Amino acid sequence: MKIVIGSDHAGYEYKAKLVAFLTGKGFDIEDIGPFSTDSVDYPDFAHAVATKVEEGNAEFGILLCGSAQGVTMTANKHQKVRAALCWMTDIAALARQHNNANVLTLPARFIAYEYAEQIVDTFLSTDFEGGRHEARVNKIACSC
């Protein structure tokens, strides 16, 4: 499974650890940066991850920033992206089961790293339930 991951400076340390964690589990990881804690603009990385997912170049995306609000808002501007801000494993499971989320966003300043790993595991191992949720998910994209 191909996963693309990015962050801003606040999420850099968690991102670096998650790259190693996911690579160790056998996932194909594309790290689009940043590659230091130097200040960066989160939309640059959120758009890059969302574009890869939207174009089918990755099955899932993972984004991190301090609160995860900015990267979530940015990624969700892409029509084929359903980014979910998850701070608990239950939220990650529901985001996949009911919303078929394809980008996980994590608030690095508000969760322990070890819990971030659990959230990622839950997100990646949970399937979309389809059924009654399918019609709702199909109404998310703007057809304006």
TrEMBL record:
Extract the PANTHER family matched here.
DNA DAMAGE-REPAIR_TOLERATION PROTEIN DRT102, RIBOSE-5-PHOSPHATE ISOMERASE B
EC number per UniProt: 5.3.1.6
Keyword terms of this UniProt record: Isomerase
Which terms does the UniProt entry file under GO BP? Answer: D-allose catabolic process; pentose-phosphate shunt, non-oxidative branch
Please give the name of this protein: Ribose 5-phosphate isomerase B
Q: Which family does it belong to?
A: Belongs to the LacAB/RpiB family.
- In this protein, the active site sits at C65, H98
User: Organism's domain of life?
Assistant: Bacteria
Q: Which InterPro entries does this UniProt record tie to the protein?
A: RpiB (IPR004785), RpiB_LacA_LacB (IPR003500), RpiB_LacA_LacB_sf (IPR036569)
- Which species is the source of this protein? Faecalibacter macacae
